[in-house]
C-alpha cells in the first residue's frame, strides 16, 4: 500500500487540436503540500480541471487513494474527497455567504452541518459577521476565504487550489498560504496549490512540480527548486 | 367607485394569470437564459388533459391534478430531450426550437381534439364580485408563488437549484447535479404554466386559446425584469390592472395597446425591467 494519496499517471488533455497536457505524471503523498508552477498557458489550470472532471482527459489516469476517478463526472469527484477551488474562487455572488458555505456540505447531507460550519468559521473570522450578506459584497481576500471555506465544508481529503493569490495583496496571500500549512498540520489535509506566484508558493509548500507547455519540466522539493538558479530563470521568472 | 372596484378585482384576477405565466418564464430564464416559447404549448397540453380526464372521472379536481402532473412531466421531458441537446450547440437554437414546439403542440392538439372551440366546465362561478373564479385565480397563484419562494429560499433543493442556475461549474464542484436541477426547474416552471392555463382557459378552449394570454405573460415578465421572480408577479398584476382600467374607462379595443404602452414606458426608464438589478455582463 503506497502512501501516495493522489496519483496522476500520463495524463493528457487538449482543447481541439491544441494539446494542453502531455503525459503529465506526478504524485502527492498523504498530508503532502505540493505546488504546481509554470508560466501562463503551461497547463496548470487545465491540469486541475482535468483532475476534477471539468475537462475530459484524452489519456492517462487519475487515482485517488488507489481508486480510478479519471472518468468520474465533476459532481461525483467531490464525494470521493477531492475538492477544487477554481480560478477566481467560484464563489456564487448571488447567494449569501452562509448559503455558499452550506452548499459545500450539501452533498453529504441535506441537513445543515453546524459543527463543520463552526470549524470553518473559526479559520476565517472575517466571514462570521458577514454570514447573512450577499457574497458579492465581499472583498477579494474574503471571497477567497469563502471559496476555501466552502471547499472545506465538504470535508475533503485533498484540496486543489487554482491561484488563490490572484488579485490579492501580498500580505493576504501570505496569510492564506500559512493557513493552508496550518490546516495540513492540524487536520492532515493534502493540498495541491497551483500558483503563478512561484516564490511565495515554494516558500510555503514541501515540493513542487513545474509545468512547461503541458509537460512536467522539473519537479522536486520546494527548497531545491528555490535554490536551483537554472530552474528559476528558465521557468519561474525570478 | 363601484366600477373602479370591479375593474380592480377583474384586473387583479387576470393579472394573477399573467403573473403565473411570467413567473414560469422567469424560472427558466434564470436557469438557462432562454425565453421558453413552448410554455403555452405546455399549458395547452395541460388543459386538454383536464378537459379529457374531468368528464371521464366526473370530477373537475381529478382533471386539475392530472393537468398539472402531465404539464410538469411535459416540461421535464422537453428540457431533457429537446432543449438540452440543442441549446448546448447554441442558445438561439434553443429558443427557436421552443417556438417550433409550440407550433407542433398546437397542430397536434388540433389533430387529436379538433381545431374548433370546446366548452370546458369550470369548478367556479364567473359571476359575482369578486367572482369565485377570480378569488380562486388570485389565491392559487399567491399560494404557488409563496411555495416557490419557500422552496428556493429555505430548502436544500432550492439552494442547489439556485447554485446551478447562477454558477453551474461552481455548483458541480460542490456536488450539485446541474442537469437534474435544470430538469427540475423546467418541471416546476411547466407546472406553474399549466396552472395558468387552467385559470385562463375556461370556459372555452381551442388550440390557439393561450396565444394572447401568453403575449401578456411575456409582457409581464419583461416589464418586471426577466430574471426576477418578484418582478414577474408585480409585472403580471400591473399588466392585468392596466388593461382592466383602460378597457373599462377608455374602451376594450385599447386594452392590447396598454400592454405595449407599458412595455415601452417601463423599458425606456428601466431597460432591464422594474426589479432587475443592473448587471455587468461580458460582451
Summed up, what is this model?
Chain A has helices at residues 44-51, 74-77, 97-105, 114-123, 125-128, 140-153, 170-187, 198-204, 222-227, 229-236; strands at 4-15, 18-29, 33-37, 59-64, 67-68, 82-85, 158-162, 190-194, 207-212, 215-221. By secondary structure, chain A is α/β, with parallel strands linked by helices.
Textual characterization of the structure:
The complex is a heterodimer of chains A (238) and B (283). Chain A has 238 residues and is α/β, with parallel strands linked by helices. Helices cover 37% and strands 27% of the residues of chain A. Chain A has a single domain, classed as 3-Layer(aba) Sandwich (Rossmann fold), CATH 3.40.50. Chain A has 10 helices and 10 strands. The model of chain B has no long low-confidence stretch (mean pLDDT 89). In chain B, helix 1 runs antiparallel to helix 8 and helix 6 (156-166) crosses helix 8 (178-200). Chain B starts with a helix and ends in a 14-residue tail after the last helix. Chain B is an all-alpha fold and 283 residues long. Chain B has one domain (2-269): ABC transporter involved in vitamin B12 uptake, BtuC. Chain B has a two-stranded antiparallel sheet with strand order 1-2. The chains are: A alpha/beta (238), B mainly alpha (283). Chains A and B meet through helix 2 and helix 3 of A and helix 6 and helix 7 of B.
Amino acid at each position: 500500500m503506497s502512501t501516495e494519496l493522489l496519483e496522476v499517471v500520463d495524463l493528457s488533455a487538449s482543447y481541439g487540436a491544441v494539446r494542453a497536457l502531455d503525459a503529465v505524471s506526478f504524485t502527492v503523498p498523504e498530508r503532502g503540500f505540493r505546488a504546481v508552477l509554470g508560466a501562463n498557458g503551461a497547463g496548470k489550470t487545465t491540469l486541475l480541471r482535468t483532475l476534477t472532471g471539468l475537462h475530459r482527459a484524452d489519456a492517462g489516469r487519475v487515482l485517488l487513494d488507489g481508486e480510478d476517478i479519471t472518468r468520474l463526472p465533476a459532481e461525483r469527484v467531490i464525494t470521493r474527497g477531492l475538492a477544487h477551488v477554481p480560478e477566481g474562487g467560484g464563489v456564487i455572488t448571488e447567494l449569501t455567504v452562509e448559503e455558499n458555505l452550506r452548499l459545500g456540505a450539501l452533498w453529504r447531507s441535506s441537513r445543515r452541518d453546524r459543527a463543520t460550519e463552526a470549524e470553518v468559521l473559526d479559520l476565517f473570522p472575517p466571514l462570521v459577521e458577514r454570514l447573512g450578506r450577499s457574497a458579492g459584497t465581499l472583498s477579494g481576500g474574503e471571497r477567497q476565504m469563502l471559496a476555501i471555506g466552502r471547499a472545506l465544508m465538504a470535508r475533503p481529503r485533498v484540496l486543489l487550489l487554482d491561484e488563490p493569490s490572484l488579485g490579492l495583496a501580498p500580505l493576504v496571500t501570505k496569510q492564506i498560504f500559512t493557513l493552508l500549512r496550518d490546516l495540513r498540520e492540524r487536520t492532515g489535509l493534502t493540498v495541491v496549490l497551483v500558483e503563478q506566484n512561484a516564490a511565495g508558493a515554494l516558500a510555503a509548500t514541501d515540493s513542487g512540480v513545474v509545468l512547461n507547455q503541458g509537460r512536467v519540466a522539473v519537479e522536486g522539493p520546494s527548497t531545491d527548486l528555490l535554490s536551483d538558479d537554472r530552474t528559476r530563470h528558465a521557468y519561474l521568472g525570478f | 367607485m363601484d366600477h373602479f372596484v370591479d375593474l380592480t378585482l377583474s384586473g387583479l384576477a387576470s393579472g394573477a394569470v399573467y403573473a403565473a405565466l411570467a413567473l414560469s418564464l422567469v424560472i427558466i430564464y434564470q436557469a438557462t437564459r432562454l425565453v421558453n416559447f413552448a410554455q403555452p404549448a405546455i399549458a395547452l397540453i395541460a388543459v386538454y388533459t383536464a378537459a379529457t380526464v374531468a368528464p371521464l372521472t366526473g370530477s373537475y379536481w381529478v382533471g386539475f391534478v392530472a393537468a398539472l402532473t402531465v404539464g410538469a412531466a411535459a416540461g421535464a421531458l422537453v428540457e431533457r430531450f429537446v432543449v438540452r441537446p440543442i441549446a448546448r450547440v447554441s442558445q438561439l437554437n434553443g429558443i427557436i426550437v421552443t417556438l417550433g414546439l409550440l407550433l407542433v403542440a398546437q397542430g397536434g392538439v388540433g389533430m387529436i381534439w379538433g381545431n374548433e372551440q370546446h366548452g370546458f366546465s369550470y369548478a367556479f362561478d364567473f359571476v359575482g364580485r369578486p367572482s369565485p373564479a377570480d378569488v380562486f385565480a388570485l389565491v392559487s397563484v399567491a399560494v404557488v408563488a409563496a411555495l416557490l419562494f419557500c422552496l428556493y429560499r429555505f430548502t436544500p433543493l432550492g439552494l442547489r437549484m439556485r447554485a446551478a442556475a447562477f454558477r453551474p461549474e461552481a455548483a458541480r464542484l460542490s456536488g450539485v447535479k446541474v442537469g437534474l436541477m435544470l430538469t427540475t426547474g423546467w418541471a416546476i416552471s411547466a407546472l406553474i404554466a399549466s396552472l395558468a392555463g387552467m385559470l385562463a382557459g375556461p370556459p372555452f378552449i381551442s388550440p390557439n386559446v393561450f396565444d394572447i394570454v401568453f403575449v401578456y405573460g411575456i409582457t409581464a415578465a419583461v416589464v418586471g425584469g426577466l430574471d426576477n421572480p418578484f418582478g414577474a408577479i408585480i409585472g403580471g398584476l400591473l399588466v392585468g390592472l392596466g388593461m382592466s382600467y383602460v378597457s373599462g374607462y377608455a374602451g376594450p379595443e385599447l386594452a392590447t395597446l396598454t400592454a405595449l404602452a407599458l412595455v415601452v414606458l417601463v423599458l425606456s426608464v428601466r431597460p432591464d425591467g422594474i426589479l432587475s438589478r443592473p448587471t455587468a455582463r461580458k460582451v
